[in-house]
Design brief:
heterotrimer, B: alpha+beta, 3-stranded mixed sheet, 35% helix, C: mainly alpha, Four Helix Bundle (Hemerythrin (Met), subunit A)
């Protein structure tokens, strides 16, 4: 537990006392807020690196039979781009925001296990460094982010790059796991008095289920990575087909992790959107209980859909149908959430400050990504489109349209709380529109080149196939997107010094994090508040008409 | 129609690999399903996005100042049930349609029978080329081995001439995808798969490997040549013959001797000669193929020579090394290879 | 020795009544709606939930290893087979040792609960000894398998899956032993003296779990698989 100190905000601190150096402080901190910010900072760094990897690929694909970067480097790029974005950008940024906000939102002073929290961050960073250290072996692994065997066996991937990759993910997996343990223990035991589990802010509920998914999804990956390392270094034969091993085993184990992983990446974004939409529509979240149940249903069902990534491997028709049905089923709770968000907006008074702008981006785009997912769930359609650019279009649509837009919504929403300053709305609009348009132009054409027969992971293509124009549009879109990220980074730095002071509650919001200073003191709350409903601050601001009169007990 | 528009977008597009231009019953079945699913998705999109845009337009906060809060609506069980049941119904319909298409498309392989006009081919995926073993045609056992171009007979009204492929891999995972002829099936080492093709259109159908398999995955191209049964049978008969033996004194004869004296024979097979390697493509009827390097370059003397000189220039990373022979040795070998019709 | 379990309990009837009285008295003054009294819920501690969450992840982990083992059962065409080389008597003995250790750790917990500090130490120590004995039996078994039967991790699929599954389990036993030694040391000489109740409970949960995994592994590898 954090000790009760009399210092106030980091800004005030910097002004007064000669504190220990920032680097020492960050290296030894166990404060959830600082750890959260370190996660976010690390994620943004890897976002830039992963983005550069993408841009290199996009330029190579600009022209048919182009020779900008050869096959070896290209193949390393798509491997590292996927690995980086999933493991060292996507998960960390969500865990970072969760780290910062969850204790505040439930009225706690820190996470349940602060030192374990720090361990989680450093393990993740170490894992990232190990993966990137593979470049020192003469080149990063060129195995694809899902690393199908036997391409990853020593016979076909000779250098130690694959070993660094596997070790890096193993190590960061421990970090992820400890993070999940921490969230669960914190959310289950450290809520403010009166905050029953069914009354937690929705972001907290989604972080809880994300953590549950992590408990089920990450260990099989850890096991698979361990088996791969044993194959490559001790002569084991798990995936070594030439000696009786099974390529299918890797695929099943990887996707058993891989599919819940993408729900781990989307659920927190759902949570953040569920915080923003009510506040900026000035209406309570519609159907909280159904939203909560839908979240749990999504988490549960997502554990049973994995082989829809394997429709083309030659499973029996019956097995195919099982995964068709489970994959289609998950669209039902997802749809329920969508309709509830719309119902929240309906009849409200919506204003489009930056958080809501990005929430709108999320809603409009995630819908499309979800629908292309339904198309892919129809297995025979997937026989054509699996491993094609259509799939790349689909998953970037849900990951960027969903996770990234949702994350930006949350970042814009909570930035004032973290720093005490407002972000520039003008820059935010530039960020949004460049991203929105650029993103559309980048990934829209991929759906077309996909159904024109363009497979994934090819470093070049023939001119006669009609793919050139779509690749060029995609590259153009990427070039439009890129400055948007730069604008965001500039905004968060510039506004730290020059932004309008925010005060405790700039958005007139309703959850506990807005009941303390911006930024919060090290101890978060002077006095742990008592809570009676899902919107404690609404109750305070409307004592004549509090929520707890209407919420079901 | 949409295809045409889409393809016209690219001026240099001369080949059509669109999944929406089916040339086989399998691809046609998939297209029907796709249109239905896309239609349902579009319908959902229009409605939901419509509601979203309506909300954005209609419920925008008009005044800058914060007035009173709008009425707070906490939920409605009946609405929740309604918008759970409706999607569930759509899912139910989709499951039925998908089941039908799946059973249509994934056809178990029959056994070869005399007079069945059916071709059975074993496809073995290699890093980064395709090996074809023609097992049976019309009930007759063949054992013809070629590489990189699959030939098959066309079907005509009333006479189906399906091709049943058994997909295997010699190394890593690959995937056989010729979009106009159907969906893809993976080639997984240790796990043979089945795939079938059938078309009533003659011509050339293109595709490529669709499962990342290493450095030259991008250039593991597929070419399926569909021809009239008579032509196909002629080709098959020729392939079954051993290699053309050059007459003594011709340059090709010297070339043959040079070829047999080099390490080519360790990897390549030329039936009727001592060359019995099985690591690389069978060269017995090399010149009956339209392309080299698995579809990368046209098969002519010039390209053949370039390939031999330095395969790494044409297909960097491929498993055939440059042998550093003298220019004359190269010319001799090329002289020989061009006779292998 | 004092116990320090941190479990919240519900308010008594009397406490609840007086709380309700207070709040209504306060609210009555302003005329605003009064929220219902907050009744604290019965809950586990954060540490307990943490260990439970961790054990859930361990179920997923061992589940994956067991799946791999089952995948390759009977798939070998060469090399030693389970029926040929696995010695049931030895493993029955080591299983008995491990089961006994679950008994001793349970005994240790209840002794601690009763405040019998010295006896607790003996039972705890006994658990450690039994754990080490189990590991020794594993080492002995592996030595025999490697040197007498030439079964290594690379020999065949059985070798691969056997050493991986049994090995990761043994690793978890080792970690358990280390945890118990740490608790022992800190109880005798360090910070935990007098208040090691919660930690003892958590470590024993872990230990029981490792035991339960062994029962599954034993049944699969030495009974069904043979």
């Amino acid at each position: 537990m954090a000790s009760v100190e009399l210092k106030t905000s980091p800004i005030a601190e910097a002004a007064h006392v000669a504190a220990p150096s920032l680097w020492y402080d960050l290296a030894t901190t166990v404060d959830h807020k600082k750890i959260g910010l370190m996660y976010i900072g690390m994620a943004l760094l890897f976002l830039v690196i992963g983005g550069c990897e993408a841009l290199l690929m996009r330029w190579q694909l600009m022209f048919p039979r182009y020779d900008f970067i050869g096959p070896d480097l290209f193949n390393q790029m798509f491997t590292m781009h996927g690995t980086t974005m999933v493991f060292f950008m996507g998960m960390p940024i969500l865990i970072g925001i969760g780290n910062y906000i969850v204790p505040l939102a439930i009225g706690a002073r820190d996470m349940a296990f602060p030192r374990l929290n720090a361990f989680g961050f450093w393990a993740t960073l170490l894992g990232g460094m190990l993966v990137y250290f593979s470049f020192a072996t003469g080149g990063a692994p060129a195995i694809g982010w899902f690393a199908y065997s036997p391409l990853t066996e020593r016979t076909f991937a000779r250098s130690a790059a694959t070993d660094f990759w596997a070790m890096g993910l193993l190590v960061s997996g421990f970090g992820t796991l400890t993070g999940a343990v921490n969230f669960i223990a914190t959310i289950l035991t450290m809520r403010a008095p009166g905050m029953a589990l069914r009354k937690v802010p929705f972001f907290v509920w989604t972080m809880l289920w994300t953590s549950v998914l992590i408990l089920f999804a990450i260990p099989p990956l850890t096991a698979a990575l361990a088996m791969l390392l044993l194959d490559r270094n001790l002569g084991a034969h798990f995936f070594d087909v030439q000696n009786g091993g099974s390529a299918m085993l890797w695929q099943h184990m990887f996707w058993f992790f891989g599919h819940p992983e993408v729900y781990i990446l989307i659920l927190p974004a759902f949570g953040m959107i569920s915080e923003v939409i009510p506040v900026f529509s000035r209406k309570v979240l519609f159907g909280y209980e159904f939203m909560a149940a839908a979240t749990a249903a999504i988490a549960f069902i997502s554990l049973g859909v994995w082989a829809h990534h394997m429709f083309t491997v030659g499973m029996s028709r019956t097995l195919d149908m099982f995964f068709v049905i489970s994959s289609l089923l998950v669209s039902i709770p997802t749809g329920i959430k969508f309709f509830n968000w719309l119902a929240t907006m309906y009849g409200g008074k919506i204003s489009f400050e930056s958080p809501m702008l990005f929430a709108f981006g999320f809603l409009s785009m995630f819908l499309i990504g979800g629908l292309t997912g339904i198309m892919l769930a129809a297995a025979p359609f997937d026989f054509q489109l699996s491993d094609s650019y259509f799939v790349i279009g689909h998953f970037h649509w849900v990951l960027i349209g969903g996770t990234i837009f949702g994350t930006f919504s949350g970042l814009y929403y909570w930035y004032p709380k973290v720093t005490g300053r407002m972000l520039s709305e003008k820059l935010a609009k530039w960020h949004f529109w460049l991203l929105y348009i650029g993103f559309f132009l980048t990934f829209g054409p991929m759906h077309i080149s996909g159904f024109l027969g363009m497979p994934r992971r090819i470093y070049t293509y023939d001119a006669d196939r009609g793919w050139e124009i779509w690749n060029q549009l995609t590259t153009l879109g990427a070039m439009i997107q890129t400055p948007s990220y730069a604008i965001f980074v500039f905004n968060i730095i510039w506004s730290y010094w020059k932004g309008k002071p925010a005060g405790n509650d700039p958005w007139d919001a309703w959850t506990l994090e807005w009941a303390t200073t911006s930024p919060p003191a090290a101890y978060n709350f002077e006095k742990i508040p008592e809570v009676h409903s899902r919107r404690p601050l609404w109750d305070l601001k409307h004592p004549d008409d509090p929520d707890w009169k209407y919420e079901d007990e | 129609m949409l295809n045409l528009l889409v393809l016209l977008a690219d001026a240099s597009a001369t080949e059509n690999l669109s999944i929406f231009d089916p040339a086989s019953p399998s691809a046609l079945s998939i297209r029907s399903l796709s249109i239905l699913v896309a239609g349902i998705s579009a319908f959902i999109f229009v409605i939901v996005e419509g509601v979203l845009l309506y909300c954005v337009a209609r419920f925008r906060r008009r005044t800058a100042k914060r007035g009173s809060e709008p009425p707070q609506v906490y939920g409605s069980t009946s609405i929740e049930i309604a918008w759970t049941v409706a999607p569930a119904l759509i899912v139910f319909i989709l499951v039925l349609v998908v089941t039908r298409t799946l059973w249509d498309v994934n056809r178990p392989h029959p056994k070869p029978v005399a007079g069945d006009q059916t071709l059975f081919v074993t496809v073995i995926g290699h890093q980064w080329w395709w090996e074809y073993i023609y097992e049976t045609y019309d009930g007759q056992t063949l054992g013809v081995v070629t590489a990189n171009e699959l030939r098959m007979p066309v079907s005509s009204p009333g006479v189906d001439r399906p091709v049943y492929l058994t997909l295997k891999s010699a190394d890593v995972c690959h995937s056989f995808w010729v979009p106009r002829l159907g969906g893809k099936t993976d080639l997984i080492p240790g796990h043979p798969n089945e795939h079938w093709l059938q078309t009533d259109k003659t011509g050339l159908f293109l595709g490529q490997c669709a499962e990342y398999c290493g450095t030259q995955h991008a250039n593991m191209l597929l070419r399926v040549v569909v021809e009239e049964p008579a032509e196909f049978e002629r080709w098959l008969a020729n392939e079954a013959k051993p290699a053309v033996e050059p007459a003594a004194g011709e340059p090709a004869a010297t070339g043959r001797a040079t070829f047999l004296g080099q390490s080519c024979v360790n990897c390549h097979r030329v039936r009727g000669t001592p060359a019995r390697g099985s690591v690389g493509p069978d060269l017995t009827h090399l010149m009956s193929r339209q392309t080299l390097a698995s579809g990368m370059v046209p098969n002519d003397r010039e390209n053949l020579r370039k390939w031999l000189l330095n395969p790494q220039q044409v297909k960097p990373g491929c498993l055939m090394p440059a042998f550093g022979l003298t220019p004359r040795e190269f010319d001799q070998i090329v002289d020989y290879l061009v006779t292998l019709r | 020795m004092e116990l320090n379990f941190d479990i919240k309990t519900a308010l008594t009837e009397h406490e609840r009544a007086s709380l309700a009285q207070e709040t209504s008295r306060a609210a009555g003054k302003s005329g605003l709606p009064v929220p219902p009294a907050i009744v604290p819920e019965k809950n586990l501690t954060a540490e307990q939930w943490g260990v439970i969450a961790f054990l859930v992840s361990e179920v997923a982990f061992f589940g994956a290893l067991i799946t791999a083992y089952i995948t390759f059962l009977g798939a070998d065409t060469s090399g030693p087979k389970p029926g040929e080389v696995l010695s049931l008597p030895l493993v029955l003995m080591s299983t008995a040792l491990l089961l006994a250790s679950s008994g001793t750790i349970h005994l240790a917990e209840s002794l601690l609960h009763q405040g019998r500090a010295r006896q607790f130490l003996y039972a705890w120590g006994g658990t450690i000894v039994l754990g080490i004995a189990f590991l020794s039996a594993t080492v002995y078994e592996w030595h025999e398998l490697i040197y007498e039967h030439q079964l290594t991790i690379s020999r065949n699929l059985f070798g691969t899956t056997f050493y991986t599954l049994i090995g990761f389990h043994a690793l978890h036993v080792t970690i358990g032993v280390i945890l118990m030694l740490t608790v022992l040391g800190l109880t005798l000489f360090g910070n935990l003296a007098g208040k090691n109740g919660p930690v003892v409970q958590l470590v024993s949960w872990y230990w029981h779990f490792v035991d339960a995994v062994w029962l599954v592994v034993f049944a699969l590898v030495y009974v069904i698989g043979r």
